[in-house]
Amino acid sequence: MRFNSPDEYIQYLAQGGRSENNIYSCVQLLTKALEKNPLSWVHEFGFNGLNQVLRILYEIFQNNKPYERIQYECIRCLIAFGNNTVGLKALIEHQEALMIVVLFLDPSKPGTMYEALKLLGVTCLISNDTHKKVLNAVTMNGKLRRHKRFLPVVQGLMNRQNKDLRAACLQFINSVKQAASTESKRLILEKNAPETKTGIMDSLLEQLQAGTAFDLLNPGRKRHT
Question: Per the database record, which ranges form the GBD/FH3 domain (predicted)?
Fold first, then answer.
């Protein structure tokens, strides 16, 4: 399998009926190509290429396909695509990109979630507008799955077997907190946390150490032991 131009990648990914191995190999090569080629190459890949990567991710989610390694590589591909002004602008302006990435905040797939948190955390810090977009995506995901919006992040923090995922969860929370530039935004972020001077990140850490993170997400409910 060999590709030379952005169009060749786009055309290959756009064609249906590809096997899991072929899709994975193509996206893996695409990630490397986005990392090593000049900005003009990324520009040529553009919105059309971005749409193909996002389509693959959404179809995996929608059809509940267990293609974890493709999910992982697609998120890494988005990070490589957005690691420059051209790609980052396209990601931010895309109406569905962040919402699709948030769908993969799944603690049962720690590798993919780790990459998704990195992308969302960096995006959150760019501007007030991107901060709002990330929070909106997280909120919509919570409504879609009918759980508290930060539940996957807290579950990731509670995974004591995966230090990288826990660190990524903390970094994401810190990014969200730092990007909250007004007091009203901070109040919105912290409304699910108990009253504390330290804020949501320190509150999460304290409750994790005490084993009471369940209470943060389910105030007023009794925990079954």
Answer: 1-225
